[in-house]
Amino acid sequence: MGLMTADQYRESLNDGRIVYYKGKKIDNVCDHPHLAACVNTVAVDYEMAHDPQYKDLALVFDEELQENISRYNHIPKNGQDLLKHLELIIKATELGQGYIPLAHDIGADAMNAIAITARTMGDAGKVYAERIEKYRKYLKKTDKCVVAGVTDAKGDRHLKPSDPGQANPDFQVRLVSKDDKGIIVRGAKVHITGAAYCNEFFVIPCKAMSSPEEAPYAVAFAIQANAKGVRQIVRPFNGRISDDEFPLDSPLRMMHTDSLIIFDDVFVPWDRVFLCGEWKFAATMVYNFALMHRRTGCAYRIPMSEQLLGIAQAIAEYNGIADAPHVKEKITEIVIYLETLTALSRSACLDFVDHAGIPVPNPITTNIAKYHFAHNYHKICEIIQDLAGGLLVTAPTYRDWMNPETHEDIKKYLQGSAKVPTENRLRMFDLIRRLTAGDLETICLHGEGSPFAERMTILMEARKTIARCKKLAEGMAGIK
Ligand SMILES: Cc1cc2nc3c(=O)[nH]c(=O)nc-3n(C[C@H](O)[C@H](O)[C@H](O)COP(=O)(O)OP(=O)(O)OC[C@H]3O[C@@H](n4cnc5c(N)ncnc54)[C@H](O)[C@@H]3O)c2cc1C
After folding, report:
1. Ligand 1 atom closest to Cα of 451?
2. What is the dihedral of CA 157, 163, 168, 170, to 10 degrees?
3. Beta carbons within 10 angstroms of residue 273's beta carbon
4. Measured in angstroms, how far is the CA atom of residue 226 from the centroid of ligand 1?
5. Hey, which end of the chain has fewer CB within 10 Å, N or C?
6. Best mutation site among 191, 301, 439 for ligand 1 pocket (most ligand atoms within 8 Å of CB)
7. Ligand 1 atom closest to residue 147's alpha carbon, by position in its atom list
8. What is the pLDDT of residue 58?
């Protein structure tokens, strides 16, 4: 089949999958305006792959298949490959107007984490290593949109999934039974971005397992979105696009929806099973996924941070305050935020480490980059909301602007700088509301893992550095 076109991707979604959205069962996700807007965002990845100007970035020539494949399905060989991958996600997010195309990136992170885990398992992992490479070849040939179901419903966070104190044993996806054809799984994954309009998803454990009782929860596989027993309840993402806002010429895109995916005794054939009870290796899989996906998250955030810098400067000029010393200070703060993120993300690629023969972004630098953008995001939003002023939330709507009875009053009294038409200022308020909405603050914090998860990894990865520095200090103090 080869590389899919955007239209082929859209057609592939009408496959009988079970999706509930806003209280209703949806027959074809492309027919619902909200979901279709998200589909348009994903389609950017497919459009890019067919656009000659992005060919070198989006595609790689595969020697075995003797054809171009998506770069996401190619195993990186070195730091330059990781950097190209970073640049591809940045460009795709830019083309998606800050909305993330994600047709392949999160799936690739899961696929490479599975491959690393299989290789780490030695002889026991050989069968999984063969299966994941066979599955990779299938993705190279079919170009399917694949996302990743990692986060489990979890239940009581302080208890193991198998603990009798849990309200039920299905908070984390688990193995129910197996036979010579495959396995049956049950459980639920939450927050799974883009699952409503992907072709398939990877399911991998969301935490390390610490004892044999947890073996049934150490399960990883790939499954079609329309597989029997899979159903999704989809949460709309508040993209704040409504008739109250000024219309845009560009196609309507929407930040993604997230799914609660229920696995109701779902059959998975063996050739799609990549971990099945080897509880000691759940940690390797989730660790490597988190590492690669945090670098992917940094790539999303670079163009998004450029947008934040752009809206801050624009609204400062529209309000006539751009030359005030405190405003320049605030703009400088956003420049530092953006450039720190960009430098750390690029450095994480070039200063890569080798995990079982696959180069992965530097763990410490990646986690610091992700922590940096999440931890400081609210501060950047506060700066922008401060520069914008209260009209950000009190300005009359587009419908009032269009009403001849109220238009002239709004035009006269809500202008800022004489150099900028009132409409531009009101349009910028719409954009600021969209880009600094509360939902985005939460995704920034929790998407790709919550801040404490990054801090834990930073401390764990830095143990050699800490020991070296301690020795240095002891040497300086004359302690032997
Ligand atoms: C918009 C969005 C999109 C996402 N997309 C995806 C996706 O596509 N795929 C996917 O797999 N996941 C996805 N996630 C999930 C994301 O990775 C998780 O939200 C994140 O890992 C936090 O998990 P949680 O939401 O269950 O919160 P929790 O783990 O419940 O965290 C809440 C708080 O509890 C603390 N905590 C948790 N466990 C413990 C414990 N045992 N002891 C002490 N403190 C604890 C945490 O540090 C945090 O402060 C997405 C999340 C968001 C918000």
Report:
1. 47
2. 80
3. 20
4. 26
5. C
6. 191
7. 8
8. 96
149 CA closest ligand 1 atom index:
11
What phi and psi, each to the nearest 5 degrees, are found at residue 406? -115, -10
pTM: 0.91
Residue 25: what residue type?
K
Ligand 1 pocket, residue 216 CB under 6 Å: no
Name which of 357, 312, 402 is nearest 115 in CA terms: 357
Closest CA to 214 of 277, 276, 158, 272: 277
Q: Is 257 in the pocket of ligand 1 (CB under 6 A)?
A: no
Q: Measured from the CB, is residue 438 less than 6 Å from ligand 1?
A: no
Overall average pLDDT of the 253-267 stretch: 91
Say how many Å lie between the CA of residue 208 and the centre of ligand 1: 14
pLDDT at 285: 98
| Two tokens, residue 135 | 């599955």
Q: What CATH number labels 285-476?
A: 1.20.140.10
Tokens of 77: 């060989």
Could you please report the per-residue DSSP string of 389-409?
A: -THHHHSPPHHHHH-HHHHHH
Comparing C-alpha atoms, which of 229, 241, 217, 302 is closest to residue 268?
Answer: 229
